[in-house]
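A protein record in our archive is deliberately plain, so that people and models can read it alike. The record that follows is passed on verbatim for readers who wish to inspect the format.
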Amino acid sequence: MGAKSKSSGQNYGRIVAINGPSPYLKIEAECIACEWCKYNCPVENCITFETVIATIHHDLCIECDRCIYVCPVDVIIPLRVAQPQKKGVKSGKTRIF
Protein backbone atom coordinates (compact mmCIF):
# COMPACT_ATOMS: atom_id res chain seq x y z
CA MET A 1 0.00 0.00 0.00
CA GLY A 2 1.21 3.45 -0.78
CA ALA A 3 1.58 6.49 1.41
CA LYS A 4 -1.44 8.74 1.91
CA SER A 5 -1.31 12.48 1.87
CA LYS A 6 -2.47 13.86 5.21
CA SER A 7 -4.13 16.85 3.55
CA SER A 8 -6.39 15.04 1.08
CA GLY A 9 -6.42 11.41 2.17
CA GLN A 10 -5.79 10.23 -1.41
CA ASN A 11 -3.56 7.27 -2.17
CA TYR A 12 -0.54 8.37 -4.19
CA GLY A 13 1.31 5.06 -4.58
CA ARG A 14 5.02 5.05 -3.62
CA ILE A 15 5.46 8.70 -2.68
CA VAL A 16 6.94 10.18 0.45
CA ALA A 17 4.99 13.39 1.00
CA ILE A 18 4.81 14.87 4.47
CA ASN A 19 4.73 18.64 4.02
CA GLY A 20 4.08 21.05 1.18
CA PRO A 21 1.77 20.89 -1.84
CA SER A 22 0.16 17.70 -3.06
CA PRO A 23 2.53 15.15 -4.59
CA TYR A 24 3.35 15.66 -8.26
CA LEU A 25 4.09 12.07 -9.30
CA LYS A 26 3.06 8.55 -8.43
CA ILE A 27 4.72 5.23 -9.26
CA GLU A 28 2.46 2.39 -10.38
CA ALA A 29 3.02 -1.11 -8.96
CA GLU A 30 4.23 -2.34 -12.36
CA CYS A 31 7.62 -0.61 -11.80
CA ILE A 32 10.45 -2.95 -12.89
CA ALA A 33 13.11 -1.22 -10.73
CA CYS A 34 15.41 -0.54 -13.69
CA GLU A 35 16.60 2.66 -11.92
CA TRP A 36 16.59 4.77 -15.11
CA CYS A 37 14.52 7.38 -13.29
CA LYS A 38 17.05 7.54 -10.45
CA TYR A 39 20.05 7.99 -12.73
CA ASN A 40 18.34 10.64 -14.87
CA CYS A 41 17.06 12.70 -11.94
CA PRO A 42 19.10 15.89 -11.43
CA VAL A 43 18.43 15.88 -7.67
CA GLU A 44 20.52 13.53 -5.58
CA ASN A 45 18.50 11.03 -3.47
CA CYS A 46 15.14 12.22 -4.81
CA ILE A 47 14.33 8.74 -6.15
CA THR A 48 15.29 5.71 -4.11
CA PHE A 49 14.70 1.97 -4.25
CA GLU A 50 14.04 0.89 -0.66
CA THR A 51 11.63 -1.80 -1.89
CA VAL A 52 11.12 -3.44 -5.26
CA ILE A 53 9.74 -0.26 -6.83
CA ALA A 54 10.88 3.36 -6.94
CA THR A 55 10.04 5.83 -4.18
CA ILE A 56 9.87 9.52 -5.09
CA HIS A 57 10.73 11.83 -2.21
CA HIS A 58 8.31 14.63 -2.92
CA ASP A 59 10.10 17.11 -0.66
CA LEU A 60 13.17 16.90 -2.97
CA CYS A 61 11.41 16.69 -6.35
CA ILE A 62 11.90 19.75 -8.58
CA GLU A 63 9.21 18.56 -11.05
CA CYS A 64 11.52 18.47 -14.08
CA ASP A 65 9.74 15.45 -15.65
CA ARG A 66 12.96 13.62 -16.59
CA CYS A 67 11.86 10.46 -14.79
CA ILE A 68 8.58 10.39 -16.72
CA TYR A 69 10.31 10.49 -20.09
CA VAL A 70 12.97 7.85 -19.37
CA CYS A 71 10.69 5.25 -17.76
CA PRO A 72 10.65 2.26 -20.15
CA VAL A 73 7.34 0.92 -18.81
CA ASP A 74 5.50 4.26 -18.35
CA VAL A 75 4.62 3.77 -14.68
CA ILE A 76 5.50 7.29 -13.47
CA ILE A 77 2.26 9.23 -13.60
CA PRO A 78 1.88 13.00 -13.04
CA LEU A 79 -0.96 13.87 -10.66
CA ARG A 80 -1.12 17.58 -11.52
CA VAL A 81 0.48 20.16 -13.79
CA ALA A 82 4.21 20.58 -13.13
CA GLN A 83 5.57 23.72 -11.52
CA PRO A 84 9.30 23.31 -12.24
CA GLN A 85 11.72 24.78 -9.74
CA LYS A 86 15.19 26.10 -10.43
CA LYS A 87 17.87 23.47 -9.86
CA GLY A 88 18.84 23.12 -6.25
CA VAL A 89 16.11 25.37 -4.85
CA LYS A 90 14.53 22.62 -2.74
CA SER A 91 17.43 20.29 -2.06
CA GLY A 92 20.60 22.28 -2.61
CA LYS A 93 22.13 19.28 -4.40
CA THR A 94 21.91 18.64 -8.11
CA ARG A 95 23.75 16.59 -10.65
CA ILE A 96 25.17 18.24 -13.74
CA PHE A 97 24.91 16.33 -17.00
DSSP finds two helices and five strands in the chain. The chain has one domain: 1-97. The longest helix spans residues 36-40.
